[in-house]
Amino acid sequence: MQTDTSIVSPSRRRWPWFAGVAIVLAVIAGGWWFGKSKSQEAQAKRAPQAIPVVTARAERRDVPVLLKANGTVTALQTVDLRSQVTSTVREVHIREGQTVARGDLLFSFDARADEANIRKAEAQVAKDRADLATAQRSLERQRELFRQKFISQAALDAAQNQVDTLNGQLAVDQAALEAVRVARGYTEIRAPFAGRTGTINVRAGSLVQPGATAQALVTVTQIDPIAVAFTLPEKELAGLQQAMASAPVEVTVSTLTGGTEHKGRVSFIDNAVDTPSGTIRVKAEFSNRDSRLWPGMYVSAELSPRIITGGTVVPAQAVQTGPENRFVYVVGNERKVESRPVTLTYVDEGLAVVEGVAPGARVVVEGAQNLRPGTVVTEPTADGKAQEATSSPRAPQSGDGPGPKASGAKK
User: Fold this and answer.
1) Is 368:379 a contact under the CB 8 Å cutoff?
2) pLDDT in tens, 349-377
3) pLDDT by residue (tens digit) across 40-71?
């Protein structure tokens, strides 16, 4: 008996339709889901992204202007002592590096010829005085005889002329005596001021000669008080002059190797500005009894000649440099930042005194490199969560970043 294969069960005829419908529905659902994801991504891209930043509030305060400069210690007086006569050194009365007082004897030369010339000149003066005394007595006798009509007027005039001549000769010889005494003084070298001696270049028996090219016998340098020379920008000249007119300007110096600080006062401002560098030379005088400052030493000088009254202070990190000017990012309404051009007045120790920002404005300190005008920002709090950074006042938090210090002066 044969089986009829053309007869198929109804259930077997329906399952391909079910499979096709299922496939079509799966394709439709996948397309819908994919389109929804793309739409969400597009919306996410169009929505502004909040950028995390750290802000600080601009403050109004008085800021001392602290000027810093590298300086050189210089002696108030220094002199190279040389001989003014050709002679031989008889004795050296000092040691190298000795502290001497004004007028102390340093060197003595062979003075035998000068002493002989002095004795000769003194004898000549004594002779002139004796001759003058004799002539004066003779003149008195001639006057008495003239009153008695025993001599003529010519004889009296001759006696008067003799006295006048001897007076002149006495004056000449007295001047000659003074000259040889001066020459005798050149045989002794004395300290012109109190100071410290340097290297001694001659010894007893050395021949010394006069002249600017001759080797110096020794150099004497004043150590106490002492000066420090440094330069300041020419823009600070007016403030420095104004401060010196009202009170002495104090200067603090310390050695570059970390020595003790010394306090002194500005004693000199140069009479011209150095045009190539735009600076002016300044000197300050210091007491140096402990000899801690030495001529030629490099030091760091600080002074505060003026105070900026009521300046707007922001962290120096908040000031950005653009292609045309300096600016800061200020957080405005709706957490959006805007660029404010500022004029930088003074910068020191992380502080910047600026013009163009009102006190109380919140400026961006960290994260400004990712900002553009109109960018929405957030600010992390102490627990690390993001918080809206708005321009409204709020209590300072530890996540606000480095705010302005209490003073612009060095601590």
Assistant:
1) no
2) 788 999 989 898 999 998 888 888 888 88
3) 555 545 556 778 888 899 999 998 888 889 99
- What does the buried/exposed string (b/e) look like for 377-410 if buried means 16 or more CB atoms within 10 Å of the residue's CB? bbbbeeeeeebebbbeeeeeeebbbebbbebbbe
Mean pLDDT score of the chain: 83
pLDDT tens string 206-225: 999 998 888 999 999 999 99
What is the DSSP code string of 268-308?
EE-SS-BTTTTEEEEEEEE--TT--S-TT-EEEEEEEEEEE
CA distances, 209 to each of 89, 116, 179 (Å): 10, 21, 19
Which helix (H) or strand (E) covers residue 142, if one does?
helix 112-147
Helix (H) or strand (E) holding 218: strand 218-221
Domain hosting 371: range is: 51-61+308-400
- Say which CATH number the domain at 386 has: 2.40.420.20
Q: What average pLDDT does this structure show over 189-206?
A: 94
Residue 269 lies in a domain: yes
Which residue is it, tokens 């330069």?
231
pLDDT class for 403, splitting at 50, 70, 90?
very low
The pair of three-digit structure tokens given for residue 192, joined into one six-digit string: 């012109």
Residue pair 303/249 in contact by the 8 Å Cβ criterion: yes
Answer yes or no: do 143 and 202 share one domain. Answer: no
303, 300, 369, 309: which is closest to 345 by C-alpha? 309
Handedness of CA 18, 21, 25, 27 (dihedral sign): positive
Pair 283, 239 in one domain:
yes
Cα angle vertex 72, ends 69, 73, to 5°? 125
